[in-house]
Write a structure and sequence with these properties.
- One of its GO terms (cellular component) is plasma membrane.
- This is MFS transporter.
- It is found in: Cell membrane.
- The termini are far apart.
- A four-stranded antiparallel beta sheet has the order 2-3-1-4.
- The chain has three domains: 187 residues, MFS general substrate transporter like domains (Growth Hormone, Chain: A); 173 residues, Growth Hormone, Chain: A, CATH 1.20.1250.20; 94 residues, Alpha-Beta Plaits.
- The chain is built from 20 helices and four strands.
- By secondary structure, it is mainly alpha-helical.
Amino acid sequence: MSRVARADAASVSSATFAPLENPTFRAIWLAAQVSGLGWLFQTVAVSWLMATITTSDVMVALVQTSTTLPVFILSIFAGAIADNFSRRTVMALGWCVIALSSIMLTALVGLGYYNPWLILAFSCLAGCGAAFTDPAWHASVGDILRKREVPAAVTLISVGYNAMRSIGPALGGVVVASFGPLTAFAAATLTYLAMLWSIGLYKWNGSASPLPREPLTTAIRDGARFTALSGEIKAAIARGFLFGLTSISILALLPMVARDQLGGGPIAYGVLMAGFGAGALCAGISNNALRRSLSQERLTTLACISCAASCLALAFTPSLVVATIALTLGGAGWVVTWTGLDVSVQLSSPRWVVGRTLSIYSALASGGIAAGSWLWGVVADAYSLTLALQSSAAALLLVAATGLLLPIRQWKESDQDSLGFETPALALDLKSRSGPIVIKIEYSIPEANVEAFLDLMRERRRVQSRVGARHWNLQRDLQEPLHWTETFRTPTWMDYLRLNHRLTGADKEVDHRLLELHVGELPPRTRLAIERPTGAARRREESGSFFFRR
């Protein structure tokens, strides 16, 4: 191996584990592994308990739906709350809900008072807690660590969970087979309490905004607008939904594969899950090296193909060994895809909105998983398990081809931190709800720079619109063609202040490039005005327009 190759390998290794040098991240990450082990114990116990008390394949597959559907429904609210309140507090409350659901399920199983619908109900409650913990935890990564460490941290989160997945299901299967589901539920409860203890012991803070908190509905709307105007995030969300819809057949139908096709019990099911986790663990450890060799789009395509191969192998093999080996391919594809999509969303989102973009991504990905669990369960119940797995494999190959329409861009580090903004001095005493506010920015652009200017203004429109600008337009003076005016509105004065506080260093690069095209001794002039509807009664201080120049 050359010196350069050895240096690259060393840097990959260092980048992979560097986040663990941070004591707060290390403590929460370790607690997440313990609680992840408990979650897998509970998943194995619930899935196998459901498979033993009902003969319906749909009910067994709905175990996956019951934990993912709440994430689909609640994540957008959880993301808005995580961006407006302490993410640490949101995490703690979410884990309290998960612990409560586990305590109740343990009590009901211990008393012998349970049925398929009660099991689904408490799995759903656990999913409600997960809807709040996951966006808050992933958004907190950027609060705890430096930005360049985020990809490695996300990989470590995935690697850690899948390390537990490689041993958790097998251990869970042994516990369920030896001591019964009650012991597995009790052990899971203790791991959730360990996570709550760690959150209480270690503290971290996000970047505080100098402005008041947004109302929940406004925060949701602003997050949805930012997501809708961000091409990278939309591509990641669409690919996540489709991948979740098609690939979840591997996990949703696995209890039936173990029970019906392989003729095994809970230990066989645990071994299969361990194979899946082992593949995920290997792929996670080598993820940094892989993305140095291949683009994220190529990795995602190959991951879909490996999951399709796993489905086909499960559809035809009667061997536990072959099925376990096939599941390592599925696990590797699973972790490569979800890690890549998660990091793409994180690196494309400023800190002020990252909780919301992650929650929208998580909601739609979980919606795809929930819908896929139901879909493949229905196909298996109505036709056959083999047909369901074959159909899922074919669908995964189609998802691999969607990269031609919705490519995942290569990760890049850019300045997504919000910049400071000095509130302009005004001649009128405005209230935070005063408005609408009209913003006009005047440029002087020579004819030779017009084409480049128009190209930049297209980007400028996207930048301004996704942070809150309304009714954006560009005008050219008919009598003095050198003069151009950019105009947009915000509903209130507070919305104008939020818009400026949300602009990042990357957004401001457009301003710098526009300044290079502008001619004249003075920079582009900004004017602020407040609209006054004719015939409306207004207070004296809002009786006309005012202007601010810079």
